[in-house]
Amino acid sequence: MIAAAYRVRIIQPDGSSEIKDLDHEPTLEEYYKWIGCEMIELIKSHNGMYEMVLDEEAKLKDPVPATNPVACDLAGTPHVGHFRIVGVVVAQAIGTLS
Asked: CA-to-CA distance for 5 and 92, rounded, in angstroms?
């Protein structure tokens, strides 16, 4: 079996996650589908190991999606307040986003 070219981890706010092994670079449409959004934001984890894709407009939604504690921990942000990360997040190894 050949290793996947791209591995992404889709992290839900409840802490559950799903790993997807892809033979292609994820498309914008795939990110939109996985996250449930129309505009994405890219951030790096605080340890520099992961790039994360999240909903740029999540905190403008009514109701605001639940805080994603796993993503907050990866990003080094608090679980409460303005800088918390909410909703579904896709994480992947650094250097695999273009």
From this structure: 11
φ, ψ (nearest 5 deg) of residue 19: -95, 130
Residue 2 tokens, joined:
């050949």
What are the pLDDT digits (tens) for 21-56? 999 999 999 999 999 999 999 999 999 999 999 999
Contact 24, 6 (CB under 8 A): yes
Q: Is the pTM of this model over 0.85?
A: yes
Dihedral pair phi/psi, residue 8, rounded to 5°: -120, 150
CB 67 within 8 A of CB 80: yes
First-to-last alpha carbon distance for the chain, in angstroms, is 26
Query: Which residues, at least 6 apart from 38, have a Cβ–Cβ distance to it below 8 Å?
Result: 32, 57
